[in-house]
C-alpha cells in the first residue's frame, strides 16, 4: 500500500476501540498492520449487529487495512512467536493494563531486548506508577472522571454521556499521532529506542479549561452577556465561559437546532 508510512510494519495487540482506531489510521497511511488476536477472536467481533458471525459492524469499522494472526499469548510458545515477529517490526501497539503486559512477558523491556529500535506504544487508562494503574478504563468511566459528562449536562444539570465513544476515539487519534512522531524522531536519532505511553486520562486535557473555570464537575455555572446554545428538542446547552450562560428555547415550531445569540457588540 502506498502512503507516508509505506514500509512500516506495526504489530497490533489492541482491542475494543481506542487502540484499533489508532492502528487503523496508521494502516490508512500505508503501514502494514498485523493484528494479533486470541483463538476466540477479538471481543469486538461479537458485539453489536453483524451480517456474518464474528464480523460485527463495530469491529469492521475500526479494523480495516489489517492482517490477522492468531496467538494465544497465555502460552509461552505464542509469546516467543510474538517476540520473533516484533524483531521484524517498526512499531508495537497495545492497550492492555500495565500489569497484563508484564505478566505476558511482552512489556517494553522484553520487546526492546529483541528489537532495540522498535517504537513501543502502550495506551493505558491510568498512570503506570499510580494507584489506579490496573483499573479498566472504559469510555464511560473516562467521560465521567474527566468531567466531560458534566460539561454535556442537560438543562436540569444532570450529567450526560456523549452518545459515542468519544474518549476512546480522541485518545486513539492522539496515539496514532504519537506513533508517527516517534517514528520521525527515531529517524533523527537512530541509536535510541522509543517508548511512550498514551493514557485515557489524556481526555482530561481538553476538559481542563472548563474544569478550572467551574463549568465542569460543578452544579454552578457562571453568567454574563452572550450565549451560544445548541438546542435539542427545545432545551438549550450553553457554551462555557460566554458572557451569559442562560438556557434558551427556540420558538415553537421554528425547526431551529443550533443558534447563536449575541449582543450588538458581537
Walkthrough of the structure:
This protein has 2 domains: 9-206, Crotonobetainyl-coa:carnitine coa-transferase, domain 1 (Rossmann fold, 3-Layer(aba) Sandwich), CATH 3.40.50; 221-266, no CATH class. Helix content is 32%, strand content 15%. It has helices at 18-28, 57-61, 76-86, 98-103, 108-114, 139-146, 148-151, 166-188, 204-212; strands spanning 9-12, 32-37, 66-70, 91-94, 119-124, 194-199, 227-230, 258-261. Strands 3-2-1-4-5-6 form a 6-stranded parallel β-sheet, with helices on both faces. It is globular, with a radius of gyration of 22 Å. Residues 208-213, 216-248 and 254-266 have low confidence and may be disordered.
- Strand and helix order: EHEHEHEHHEHHHEHEE
Report on the biggest sheet. 6 strands, parallel
C-alpha end-to-end distance:
49 Å
Rg estimate, integer Å: 22 Å
Strand coverage percent = 5-15%
Structural class: alpha/beta
* CATH superfamily caption of the largest domain: Crotonobetainyl-coa:carnitine coa-transferase, domain 1
At the first level of CATH, what is the class of the largest domain?
Alpha Beta
Mean pLDDT: 78
Q: Major sheet: order of its strands?
A: 3-2-1-4-5-6
How much helix, percentage-wise, in residues?
Answer: 25-40%
Number of strands: 8
The CATH topology annotation of the largest domain reads as Rossmann fold
Instruction: Pick out the low-confidence regions.
Output: 208-213, 216-248, 254-266
Task: Give the overall silhouette.
Answer: globular
CATH architecture of the largest domain: 3-Layer(aba) Sandwich
Tally of separate domains = 2
| Number of helical segments with 4 or more residues | 9
Amino acid at each position: 500500500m502506498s502512503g507516508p508510512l509505506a514500509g512500516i510494519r506495526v504489530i497490533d495487540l489492541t482491542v475494543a476501540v481506542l487502540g484499533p482506531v489508532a492502528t487503523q489510521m496508521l494502516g490508512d497511511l500505508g503501514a502494514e498492520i498485523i493484528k494479533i488476536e486470541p483463538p476466540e477472536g477479538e471481543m469486538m467481533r461479537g458485539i453489536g449487529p453483524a451480517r456474518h458471525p464474528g464480523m460485527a459492524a463495530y469491529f469492521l469499522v475500526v479494523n480495516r487495512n489489517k492482517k490477522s494472526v492468531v496467538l494465544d499469548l497465555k502460552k509461552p510458545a505464542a509469546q516467543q512467536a510474538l517476540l520473533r515477529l516484533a524483531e521484524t517490526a517498526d512499531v508495537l501497539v497495545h492497550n492492555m493494563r500495565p500489569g497484563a503486559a508484564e505478566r505476558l512477558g511482552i512489556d517494553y523491556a522484553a520487546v526492546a531486548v529483541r528489537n532495540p529500535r522498535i517504537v513501543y506504544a502502550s495506551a493505558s487508562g491510568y498512570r503506570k506508577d499510580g494507584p489506579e494503574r490496573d483499573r479498566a478504563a472504559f469510555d464511560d468511566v473516562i467521560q465521567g472522571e474527566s468531567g466531560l459528562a458534566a460539561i454535556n449536562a442537560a438543562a436540569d444539570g444532570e450529567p450526560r454521556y456523549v452518545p459515542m465513544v468519544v474518549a476512546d476515539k480522541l485518545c486513539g487519534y492522539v496515539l496514532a499521532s504519537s506513533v508517527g512522531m516517534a517514528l520521525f524522531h527515531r529517524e533523527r536519532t537512530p541509536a535510541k529506542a522509543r517508548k511512550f505511553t498514551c493514557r485515557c486520562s489524556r481526555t482530561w486535557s481538553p476538559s481542563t479549561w472548563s474544569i478550572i473555570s467551574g463549568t465542569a464537575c460543578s452544579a454552578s455555572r457562571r453568567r454574563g452577556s452572550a450565549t451560544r446554545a445548541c438546542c435539542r428538542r427545545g432545551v438549550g446547552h450553553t457554551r462555557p465561559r460566554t458572557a451569559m450562560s442562560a438556557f434558551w428555547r427556540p420558538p415553537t415550531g421554528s425547526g431551529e437546532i443550533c443558534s447563536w445569540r449575541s449582543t450588538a457588540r458581537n
